[in-house]
Design a protein that fits this description.
Rossmann fold, 14 helices, 2 domains, 39% helix, eight-stranded mixed β-sheet, alpha/beta
């Protein structure tokens, strides 16, 4: 069985199925079609499917012309019909793994997808989970569902885990050039997954198990979470001491060894870094361990939007004005600069907190023309134009995301007050007395 699948993959005749056509799934579709393989994309959202089949992209860094080319070539088709999952030889699962309101893992999407795959699972298929999750998910959650019909992993079908490493907006690395960690249920499962990814990824990194692969992703993101929490906490401390944390980081960065700069902000965003440490902490409790260090980092980062709002309130108060009734313009809805990704963006939390305190809030983001309904937010807002006249209508401008497209001198020249969470105004020459770092 394994030799038949390997031969099919290596010849390029294997059909690849990608479940979840978002920021992780769509780049994978792009790479497999570029390699000349046929790809079926599956998504529960019929609006996304319709857009893709019409040649329209809904992700900024994947242009519509590319989608049109993939569809016209006949190598790509998208569908919401999950009964067609028996067709692909290799199924890659890229669905969300959010947190519940209690900050525990929400396996709803993974479990539902596993059940959908199980309904049509046939001998010889490879199933790979890419969603970021806690160590043990593939074996403890996916495997029992897939094997419930009697097929055996490693013999009848092949099961693996390979964590996504997408970073929207990067120019120096692409899906193809970012090394791909892969762990299999057994050696044949690993061989199948490695063969599949080697068709489109320059460097594939095999590890001993699915749990090791899952843990590698958790380590990567916990490392970033902890270090960002450190500089966020130092930002709050240095603020009280009257020291500019950005100047301190720049000075420390001149050391050629033993230091890697991380930067503070209004909170953590993106689908991975704000979530993964909580996944690990939850799993650790099953082993009677309390990951205090990791949990503390998570708490620091979660608290940052409230720190920013407190700084805004203080700045307004110094000008004899209350936050309640004030008009606030938030610059940047995306979670990081120059992308259209708003998943877990601290800007969403900032808008909620400001509204709760009676402020009237608008936003501008050249990459996010309007909001859409999300799991925990439904703001129903549209980006307002950024003009000199428009800026003068607000009591304060809050810079949450430092997009390159912004003219920060224009902002400072025309705003009554600028609260900067990203050091975006560092190069501004005029009006520095209006700027408050937060």
């Amino acid at each position: 069985m394994i030799q038949k699948l390997l031969k099919k993959i290596e010849s390029g005749k294997a059909v690849v199925g990608v479940i979840g056509l978002g920021y992780v799934g769509l780049p994978l579709v792009r790479e497999f079609t570029r390699a000349g393989m046929k790809v079926m994309g599956f998504d529960i959202d019929p609006v996304k499917v319709k857009a893709l089949m019409a040649g329209r992209s809904y992700i900024e860094h994947i242009p519509s012309r590319l989608i049109k080319e993939m569809v016209r070539s006949g190598r790509f088709q998208a569908t919401s019909d999950f009964t067609r999952l028996s067709r692909p030889d290799c199924i890659l699962i890229c669905v969300p793994t959010p947190l519940t309101r209690q900050r525990e893992p929400d396996m709803t999407y993974v479990e539902a997808t596993a059940r959908a795959v199980a309904k049509t699972l046939r001998r010889g298929q490879l199933v790979v989970l890419e969603s970021t999750t806690y160590p043990g998910t593939t074996e403890e959650v996916m495997l029992p569902i897939l094997a419930a019909g009697g097929l055996k992993a490693g013999k009848d079908f092949f099961l693996a885990y390979s964590p996504e490493r997408e970073d929207p907006g990067r120019k120096d690395y692409t899906t193809r050039t970012i090394p791909k960690v892969v762990g299999g249920h057994d050696k044949d499962c690993l061989a199948a997954a490695v063969a599949c990814y080697r068709r489109v990824i320059d460097t594939v990194v095999p590890v001993s198990s699915t749990a090791a692969a899952e843990a590698s992703k958790i380590l990567e993101n916990t490392y970033r979470c902890v270090n960002i929490a450190l500089v966020n906490e130092l930002k709050m401390l240095f603020d009280r001491m009257g020291i500019d944390v950005w100047e301190v980081i720049a000075a420390a960065s001149t050391k050629p060894f033993g230091f890697q700069p991380f930067y503070p902000g209004p909170g953590l965003g993106g689908h991975c870094i704000p979530i993964d440490p909580f996944y690990l902490s939850w799993k650790a409790r099953q082993y009677d361990m309390s990951t205090k260090f990791i949990e503390l980092a998570g708490e620091v980062n979660v608290s940052m939007p409230r720190f920013v709002v407190a700084k805004l309130i203080e700045a307004l108060n110094d000008r004899g004005q209350a936050l309640k009734g004030s008009k606030i313009l938030l610059l940047g809805l995306a979670y990081k600069k120059d992308v259209d990704d708003v998943r877990e963006s601290p800007s969403l939390e900032l808008i909620d907190l400001l509204r709760q305190r009676g402020a009237k809030v608008d936003y501008n983001d050249p990459h996010v023309p309007r909001t859409h309904k999300m799991r925990q937010h439904d703001l129903r807002m549209a980006s307002v134009p950024l003009t000199a006249a428009g800026l003068r209508k607000y009591d304060a401008v809050l810079i949450s995301t430092d997009h390159s497209a912004y003219d920060y001198q224009l902002v400072v020249d025309n705003a009554a007050l600028v609260v900067d969470t990203r050091n975006a105004t560092a190069g501004v020459r005029r009006g520095r007395g209006k700027i408050v770092k937060a």
